Amino acid sequence: MPDEVARQLDAMLFGVPRSTAAYLTGLVALPELLWEQTHDVWITIIALAAVVLNFVRVLIVVFKRRQEGDSLPRIYWAALFALGMIYSADMAALALRALWLRDPLALALAAIAVAGYLTGVVIRASAVPRLAVPQILALFVPMIAAAPFASSEMSLAAAALLFLFCIGCLELSRSVHDRMKAQLIAEHKLAMNARTDYLTGLANRAAFDERGGDRLRQAEAGSPGPIVALIDLDGFKNVNDTHGHAVGDEVLRQASGRLRQALHGRHFAARLGGDECAVVFDLDAPLETARSLGEDIVATLARPFELDGVVIRISGSVGIAALDAHDVGFASVVERADRSLYAAKQAGGNQVRLAGEPVEAPSIVPAKPYPENRGVVGPASRSEAQRSGHALARPDRNVEDEALEVPPTS
Length: 410
Prior knowledge:
Low-confidence stretches: 361-410
Distance between the termini: 62 Å
Mean pLDDT: 82
Number of domains: 2
CATH class of the largest domain: Alpha Beta
CATH topology of the largest domain: Alpha-Beta Plaits
Helix content: 55-70%
CATH superfamily of the largest domain: Reverse transcriptase/Diguanylate cyclase domain
Shape: elongated
Number of strands: 7
Largest sheet: 5 strands, mixed
Radius of gyration: 33 Å
Strand order of the largest sheet: 2-3-1-6-7
CATH architecture of the largest domain: 2-Layer Sandwich
Number of helices: 14
Structural class: alpha+beta
Strand content: 5-15%
Order of helices and strands: HHHHHHHHEHHEEHEEEHEHH
Protein backbone atom coordinates (compact mmCIF):
# COMPACT_ATOMS: atom_id res chain seq x y z
CA MET A 1 0.00 0.00 0.00
CA PRO A 2 1.46 3.43 -0.90
CA ASP A 3 2.43 5.59 2.09
CA GLU A 4 0.09 8.34 0.93
CA VAL A 5 -2.88 5.94 0.95
CA ALA A 6 -1.96 4.76 4.47
CA ARG A 7 -1.87 8.38 5.67
CA GLN A 8 -5.26 9.06 4.11
CA LEU A 9 -6.75 6.03 5.84
CA ASP A 10 -5.33 7.19 9.18
CA ALA A 11 -6.74 10.69 8.58
CA MET A 12 -10.27 9.28 8.26
CA LEU A 13 -10.23 8.66 12.01
CA PHE A 14 -10.00 12.36 12.70
CA GLY A 15 -12.98 13.71 10.83
CA VAL A 16 -16.05 14.97 12.68
CA PRO A 17 -19.06 14.43 10.42
CA ARG A 18 -22.49 15.87 11.22
CA SER A 19 -23.65 12.40 12.28
CA THR A 20 -21.11 12.50 15.12
CA ALA A 21 -22.57 15.77 16.39
CA ALA A 22 -26.07 14.28 16.33
CA TYR A 23 -24.89 11.16 18.21
CA LEU A 24 -23.15 13.26 20.86
CA THR A 25 -26.27 15.39 21.34
CA GLY A 26 -28.35 12.29 22.00
CA LEU A 27 -25.65 10.81 24.21
CA VAL A 28 -25.60 13.91 26.43
CA ALA A 29 -29.33 13.46 27.09
CA LEU A 30 -28.97 9.72 27.78
CA PRO A 31 -27.92 9.85 31.49
CA GLU A 32 -30.86 12.10 32.40
CA LEU A 33 -33.34 9.91 30.52
CA LEU A 34 -32.04 6.72 32.14
CA TRP A 35 -32.11 8.26 35.61
CA GLU A 36 -35.66 9.49 35.20
CA GLN A 37 -36.74 6.05 33.94
CA THR A 38 -34.85 3.71 36.29
CA HIS A 39 -33.40 5.77 39.19
CA ASP A 40 -30.46 3.34 38.93
CA VAL A 41 -27.13 4.86 39.93
CA TRP A 42 -24.97 2.37 38.03
CA ILE A 43 -26.58 2.71 34.62
CA THR A 44 -26.53 6.51 35.04
CA ILE A 45 -22.79 6.48 35.88
CA ILE A 46 -22.09 4.24 32.88
CA ALA A 47 -23.99 6.65 30.60
CA LEU A 48 -22.11 9.65 32.07
CA ALA A 49 -18.80 7.85 31.44
CA ALA A 50 -19.78 7.40 27.79
CA VAL A 51 -20.37 11.16 27.48
CA VAL A 52 -17.01 11.98 29.06
CA LEU A 53 -15.13 9.48 26.86
CA ASN A 54 -16.72 10.95 23.72
CA PHE A 55 -15.69 14.47 24.65
CA VAL A 56 -12.14 13.27 25.34
CA ARG A 57 -12.06 11.83 21.84
CA VAL A 58 -13.25 15.16 20.41
CA LEU A 59 -10.38 16.88 22.22
CA ILE A 60 -7.95 14.36 20.72
CA VAL A 61 -9.29 15.08 17.24
CA VAL A 62 -8.89 18.84 17.79
CA PHE A 63 -5.33 18.25 19.03
CA LYS A 64 -4.53 16.13 15.95
CA ARG A 65 -5.78 18.80 13.57
CA ARG A 66 -3.42 21.33 15.12
CA GLN A 67 -0.39 19.10 14.69
CA GLU A 68 1.91 19.49 11.70
CA GLY A 69 3.19 16.51 9.75
CA ASP A 70 1.70 13.26 8.61
CA SER A 71 2.76 10.94 11.42
CA LEU A 72 1.84 10.87 15.10
CA PRO A 73 3.84 9.60 18.10
CA ARG A 74 3.22 6.03 19.17
CA ILE A 75 1.92 7.20 22.53
CA TYR A 76 -0.81 9.05 20.69
CA TRP A 77 -1.98 5.90 18.89
CA ALA A 78 -1.76 3.99 22.17
CA ALA A 79 -4.05 6.56 23.82
CA LEU A 80 -6.49 6.38 20.91
CA PHE A 81 -6.53 2.58 21.10
CA ALA A 82 -7.07 2.58 24.85
CA LEU A 83 -9.88 5.12 24.58
CA GLY A 84 -11.68 2.99 21.98
CA MET A 85 -11.35 -0.16 24.06
CA ILE A 86 -12.64 1.55 27.21
CA TYR A 87 -15.59 3.03 25.34
CA SER A 88 -16.47 -0.35 23.82
CA ALA A 89 -16.41 -1.93 27.28
CA ASP A 90 -18.54 0.94 28.60
CA MET A 91 -21.15 0.39 25.87
CA ALA A 92 -21.23 -3.34 26.68
CA ALA A 93 -21.71 -2.52 30.38
CA LEU A 94 -24.56 -0.15 29.47
CA ALA A 95 -26.37 -2.86 27.52
CA LEU A 96 -25.84 -5.50 30.23
CA ARG A 97 -27.02 -3.20 33.01
CA ALA A 98 -30.16 -2.34 31.04
CA LEU A 99 -30.74 -6.06 30.49
CA TRP A 100 -30.27 -6.70 34.23
CA LEU A 101 -32.84 -4.01 35.09
CA ARG A 102 -35.35 -5.51 32.62
CA ASP A 103 -36.70 -2.07 31.86
CA PRO A 104 -38.00 -1.91 28.25
CA LEU A 105 -37.25 1.81 27.79
CA ALA A 106 -33.78 1.49 29.31
CA LEU A 107 -33.09 -1.45 27.01
CA ALA A 108 -34.25 0.56 24.01
CA LEU A 109 -32.09 3.57 24.94
CA ALA A 110 -29.04 1.34 25.53
CA ALA A 111 -29.60 -0.45 22.21
CA ILE A 112 -29.79 2.89 20.37
CA ALA A 113 -26.54 4.09 21.99
CA VAL A 114 -24.74 0.81 21.20
CA ALA A 115 -26.04 0.73 17.61
CA GLY A 116 -24.92 4.32 16.98
CA TYR A 117 -21.46 3.58 18.30
CA LEU A 118 -21.16 0.34 16.34
CA THR A 119 -22.18 2.12 13.15
CA GLY A 120 -19.39 4.65 13.65
CA VAL A 121 -16.84 1.91 14.28
CA VAL A 122 -17.80 -0.01 11.14
CA ILE A 123 -18.06 3.03 8.85
CA ARG A 124 -15.17 5.17 10.06
CA ALA A 125 -12.82 3.23 12.32
CA SER A 126 -12.65 0.43 9.75
CA ALA A 127 -10.20 2.65 7.88
CA VAL A 128 -7.65 1.36 10.42
CA PRO A 129 -8.44 -2.33 11.20
CA ARG A 130 -5.93 -2.47 14.07
CA LEU A 131 -8.29 -0.13 15.93
CA ALA A 132 -11.68 -1.25 14.61
CA VAL A 133 -11.39 -5.01 15.16
CA PRO A 134 -10.39 -4.87 18.86
CA GLN A 135 -13.16 -2.33 19.54
CA ILE A 136 -15.80 -4.57 17.95
CA LEU A 137 -14.58 -7.54 19.99
CA ALA A 138 -14.48 -5.48 23.20
CA LEU A 139 -18.13 -4.61 22.63
CA PHE A 140 -19.50 -8.06 21.80
CA VAL A 141 -17.37 -10.46 23.88
CA PRO A 142 -18.62 -9.26 27.31
CA MET A 143 -22.24 -9.43 26.14
CA ILE A 144 -21.78 -12.89 24.62
CA ALA A 145 -20.07 -14.13 27.81
CA ALA A 146 -22.78 -12.70 30.09
CA ALA A 147 -25.83 -13.70 28.04
CA PRO A 148 -25.94 -17.39 29.12
CA PHE A 149 -26.13 -16.32 32.78
CA ALA A 150 -29.27 -14.27 32.29
CA SER A 151 -32.35 -15.82 33.94
CA SER A 152 -34.17 -16.40 30.67
CA GLU A 153 -35.05 -19.39 28.55
CA MET A 154 -33.72 -17.53 25.52
CA SER A 155 -30.33 -16.70 27.05
CA LEU A 156 -28.37 -19.23 24.98
CA ALA A 157 -30.20 -18.14 21.84
CA ALA A 158 -29.32 -14.53 22.65
CA ALA A 159 -25.65 -15.45 23.09
CA ALA A 160 -25.66 -17.26 19.73
CA LEU A 161 -27.35 -14.29 18.07
CA LEU A 162 -24.81 -11.88 19.53
CA PHE A 163 -21.99 -14.14 18.28
CA LEU A 164 -23.42 -14.04 14.74
CA PHE A 165 -23.78 -10.27 14.95
CA CYS A 166 -20.15 -10.02 16.03
CA ILE A 167 -18.95 -12.12 13.09
CA GLY A 168 -21.12 -10.08 10.73
CA CYS A 169 -19.74 -6.78 12.02
CA LEU A 170 -16.15 -8.00 11.69
CA GLU A 171 -16.78 -9.11 8.11
CA LEU A 172 -18.55 -5.85 7.29
CA SER A 173 -15.64 -3.90 8.78
CA ARG A 174 -13.19 -5.83 6.61
CA SER A 175 -15.29 -5.19 3.52
CA VAL A 176 -15.57 -1.47 4.26
CA HIS A 177 -11.80 -1.24 4.78
CA ASP A 178 -11.10 -3.05 1.50
CA ARG A 179 -13.40 -0.67 -0.38
CA MET A 180 -11.85 2.39 1.23
CA LYS A 181 -8.36 1.18 0.40
CA ALA A 182 -9.25 0.22 -3.18
CA GLN A 183 -10.78 3.63 -3.84
CA LEU A 184 -7.85 5.51 -2.37
CA ILE A 185 -5.33 3.39 -4.27
CA ALA A 186 -7.22 4.03 -7.53
CA GLU A 187 -7.25 7.78 -6.83
CA HIS A 188 -3.56 7.65 -5.95
CA LYS A 189 -2.73 5.90 -9.22
CA LEU A 190 -4.70 8.45 -11.23
CA ALA A 191 -2.92 11.29 -9.45
CA MET A 192 0.48 9.65 -10.02
CA ASN A 193 -0.27 9.04 -13.70
CA ALA A 194 -1.16 12.70 -14.11
CA ARG A 195 2.20 13.67 -12.61
CA THR A 196 4.47 10.93 -14.00
CA ASP A 197 6.19 10.48 -17.34
CA TYR A 198 4.91 7.17 -18.73
CA LEU A 199 8.18 6.22 -20.46
CA THR A 200 10.77 6.83 -17.75
CA GLY A 201 8.75 6.82 -14.53
CA LEU A 202 10.18 10.22 -13.61
CA ALA A 203 7.93 13.14 -12.73
CA ASN A 204 6.54 15.02 -15.73
CA ARG A 205 6.68 18.72 -16.65
CA ALA A 206 3.50 19.59 -14.74
CA ALA A 207 4.87 18.02 -11.53
CA PHE A 208 8.21 19.77 -12.10
CA ASP A 209 6.55 23.17 -12.39
CA GLU A 210 4.45 22.43 -9.30
CA ARG A 211 7.52 21.47 -7.27
CA GLY A 212 9.30 24.60 -8.45
CA GLY A 213 6.39 26.76 -7.38
CA ASP A 214 6.41 25.09 -3.95
CA ARG A 215 10.14 25.72 -3.56
CA LEU A 216 9.69 29.35 -4.57
CA ARG A 217 7.01 29.84 -1.91
CA GLN A 218 9.32 28.23 0.64
CA ALA A 219 12.05 30.67 -0.39
CA GLU A 220 9.68 33.58 0.15
CA ALA A 221 9.06 32.23 3.66
CA GLY A 222 12.78 32.27 4.44
CA SER A 223 14.04 28.90 3.18
CA PRO A 224 16.94 28.62 0.70
CA GLY A 225 15.99 29.37 -2.88
CA PRO A 226 15.51 26.59 -5.43
CA ILE A 227 18.50 25.17 -7.29
CA VAL A 228 17.68 23.62 -10.66
CA ALA A 229 19.69 21.40 -12.98
CA LEU A 230 18.76 20.70 -16.59
CA ILE A 231 20.23 17.57 -18.19
CA ASP A 232 20.43 16.88 -21.91
CA LEU A 233 21.78 13.74 -23.61
CA ASP A 234 24.57 14.47 -26.09
CA GLY A 235 24.24 12.55 -29.33
CA PHE A 236 20.81 11.10 -28.54
CA LYS A 237 19.28 12.18 -31.85
CA ASN A 238 21.79 10.05 -33.67
CA VAL A 239 20.75 7.05 -31.56
CA ASN A 240 17.18 7.40 -32.82
CA ASP A 241 18.31 8.00 -36.38
CA THR A 242 20.70 5.03 -36.42
CA HIS A 243 18.99 2.43 -34.25
CA GLY A 244 15.34 3.45 -34.23
CA HIS A 245 13.02 4.91 -31.63
CA ALA A 246 12.57 1.63 -29.72
CA VAL A 247 16.27 1.62 -28.87
CA GLY A 248 16.10 5.33 -28.14
CA ASP A 249 13.24 4.77 -25.68
CA GLU A 250 15.21 2.08 -23.89
CA VAL A 251 18.23 4.39 -23.65
CA LEU A 252 15.95 7.02 -22.08
CA ARG A 253 14.66 4.49 -19.55
CA GLN A 254 18.16 3.38 -18.59
CA ALA A 255 19.42 6.96 -18.45
CA SER A 256 16.55 7.86 -16.12
CA GLY A 257 17.45 4.94 -13.88
CA ARG A 258 21.05 6.11 -13.73
CA LEU A 259 19.83 9.62 -12.89
CA ARG A 260 17.87 8.26 -9.91
CA GLN A 261 20.91 6.30 -8.73
CA ALA A 262 23.15 9.35 -8.99
CA LEU A 263 20.71 11.30 -6.80
CA HIS A 264 20.73 8.52 -4.14
CA GLY A 265 16.94 8.57 -3.74
CA ARG A 266 16.86 12.28 -2.89
CA HIS A 267 15.91 15.44 -4.74
CA PHE A 268 13.19 15.76 -7.38
CA ALA A 269 13.89 14.43 -10.87
CA ALA A 270 11.62 14.99 -13.87
CA ARG A 271 11.59 14.46 -17.61
CA LEU A 272 10.67 17.66 -19.40
CA GLY A 273 10.38 16.10 -22.85
CA GLY A 274 12.51 14.45 -25.49
CA ASP A 275 15.91 13.69 -24.02
CA GLU A 276 15.87 16.57 -21.53
CA CYS A 277 15.48 15.97 -17.80
CA ALA A 278 15.60 18.26 -14.80
CA VAL A 279 16.31 18.13 -11.08
CA VAL A 280 15.03 20.38 -8.30
CA PHE A 281 17.46 19.92 -5.44
CA ASP A 282 16.39 19.52 -1.82
CA LEU A 283 16.35 22.50 0.53
CA ASP A 284 19.48 21.38 2.39
CA ALA A 285 21.58 20.97 -0.78
CA PRO A 286 23.94 23.93 -1.39
CA LEU A 287 25.19 24.87 -4.83
CA GLU A 288 28.44 22.94 -4.29
CA THR A 289 26.45 19.75 -3.65
CA ALA A 290 24.35 20.40 -6.73
CA ARG A 291 27.47 20.73 -8.85
CA SER A 292 28.98 17.56 -7.37
CA LEU A 293 25.79 15.64 -8.15
CA GLY A 294 25.79 17.13 -11.63
CA GLU A 295 29.28 15.74 -12.17
CA ASP A 296 28.09 12.34 -10.92
CA ILE A 297 25.25 12.48 -13.46
CA VAL A 298 27.67 13.32 -16.26
CA ALA A 299 29.94 10.44 -15.23
CA THR A 300 27.16 7.86 -15.08
CA LEU A 301 25.71 8.91 -18.44
CA ALA A 302 29.12 8.54 -20.09
CA ARG A 303 29.17 4.81 -19.33
CA PRO A 304 28.13 2.63 -22.32
CA PHE A 305 24.52 1.49 -22.63
CA GLU A 306 24.10 -2.14 -23.64
CA LEU A 307 20.89 -3.11 -25.42
CA ASP A 308 20.50 -6.58 -26.92
CA GLY A 309 24.14 -6.80 -27.96
CA VAL A 310 24.28 -3.19 -29.21
CA VAL A 311 26.55 -0.83 -27.32
CA ILE A 312 25.38 2.78 -27.30
CA ARG A 313 27.77 5.50 -26.24
CA ILE A 314 26.37 8.92 -25.46
CA SER A 315 27.09 11.50 -22.79
CA GLY A 316 25.26 14.16 -20.85
CA SER A 317 25.47 17.90 -20.38
CA VAL A 318 24.21 19.63 -17.23
CA GLY A 319 23.32 23.27 -16.64
CA ILE A 320 22.69 24.46 -13.08
CA ALA A 321 21.20 27.68 -11.75
CA ALA A 322 20.15 28.90 -8.30
CA LEU A 323 17.58 31.54 -7.46
CA ASP A 324 19.11 35.02 -7.29
CA ALA A 325 17.84 38.52 -6.68
CA HIS A 326 17.17 39.16 -10.37
CA ASP A 327 14.84 36.18 -10.86
CA VAL A 328 11.15 37.06 -11.02
CA GLY A 329 9.92 33.48 -10.66
CA PHE A 330 10.79 29.84 -11.00
CA ALA A 331 10.71 30.13 -14.78
CA SER A 332 13.61 32.60 -14.58
CA VAL A 333 15.72 30.07 -12.71
CA VAL A 334 14.90 27.40 -15.29
CA GLU A 335 15.75 29.80 -18.11
CA ARG A 336 19.19 30.53 -16.67
CA ALA A 337 19.79 26.80 -16.13
CA ASP A 338 18.85 26.29 -19.78
CA ARG A 339 21.39 28.87 -20.90
CA SER A 340 24.04 27.12 -18.80
CA LEU A 341 23.07 23.82 -20.39
CA TYR A 342 23.40 25.33 -23.84
CA ALA A 343 26.86 26.67 -22.92
CA ALA A 344 27.91 23.19 -21.76
CA LYS A 345 26.77 21.65 -25.05
CA GLN A 346 28.44 24.35 -27.12
CA ALA A 347 31.68 23.66 -25.26
CA GLY A 348 31.57 20.04 -26.38
CA GLY A 349 29.13 18.47 -23.91
CA ASN A 350 29.90 15.85 -21.28
CA GLN A 351 30.30 18.52 -18.61
CA VAL A 352 28.57 20.69 -15.99
CA ARG A 353 28.13 24.44 -16.24
CA LEU A 354 26.84 26.78 -13.53
CA ALA A 355 24.89 29.90 -14.34
CA GLY A 356 27.15 32.93 -14.41
CA GLU A 357 30.35 31.04 -15.19
CA PRO A 358 32.42 32.83 -17.84
CA VAL A 359 32.65 30.90 -21.10
CA GLU A 360 34.46 31.48 -24.34
CA ALA A 361 32.29 32.04 -27.35
CA PRO A 362 32.68 29.08 -29.73
CA SER A 363 33.22 29.42 -33.41
CA ILE A 364 29.93 28.63 -35.13
CA VAL A 365 29.95 26.82 -38.45
CA PRO A 366 27.37 24.47 -39.93
CA ALA A 367 27.02 21.45 -37.66
CA LYS A 368 28.27 18.11 -38.86
CA PRO A 369 26.20 15.03 -38.03
CA TYR A 370 27.67 12.40 -35.75
CA PRO A 371 29.28 9.71 -37.94
CA GLU A 372 27.98 6.15 -37.63
CA ASN A 373 30.33 3.71 -35.95
CA ARG A 374 28.77 0.25 -36.13
CA GLY A 375 26.18 0.98 -33.49
CA VAL A 376 28.56 2.89 -31.25
CA VAL A 377 27.49 6.50 -30.92
CA GLY A 378 28.92 9.17 -28.70
CA PRO A 379 32.04 10.76 -27.32
CA ALA A 380 34.36 9.48 -30.02
CA SER A 381 32.19 11.11 -32.66
CA ARG A 382 32.09 14.31 -30.62
CA SER A 383 35.86 14.50 -30.35
CA GLU A 384 36.20 13.96 -34.10
CA ALA A 385 33.77 16.75 -34.79
CA GLN A 386 35.64 19.12 -32.49
CA ARG A 387 39.03 18.29 -34.03
CA SER A 388 37.62 18.99 -37.47
CA GLY A 389 36.50 22.44 -36.37
CA HIS A 390 32.77 21.70 -36.42
CA ALA A 391 30.59 22.72 -33.49
CA LEU A 392 27.81 20.50 -32.28
CA ALA A 393 24.26 21.65 -32.71
CA ARG A 394 21.90 21.34 -29.79
CA PRO A 395 19.36 18.67 -30.78
CA ASP A 396 16.32 20.89 -30.29
CA ARG A 397 17.73 23.86 -32.23
CA ASN A 398 18.45 24.44 -35.89
CA VAL A 399 21.93 25.27 -37.02
CA GLU A 400 20.64 28.55 -38.39
CA ASP A 401 19.23 29.44 -34.96
CA GLU A 402 22.56 28.64 -33.31
CA ALA A 403 24.38 30.87 -35.74
CA LEU A 404 22.15 33.78 -34.78
CA GLU A 405 22.89 33.29 -31.08
CA VAL A 406 26.65 33.92 -31.24
CA PRO A 407 27.55 36.54 -28.64
CA PRO A 408 29.51 39.48 -30.06
CA THR A 409 33.22 39.27 -29.64
CA SER A 410 35.13 42.18 -28.22
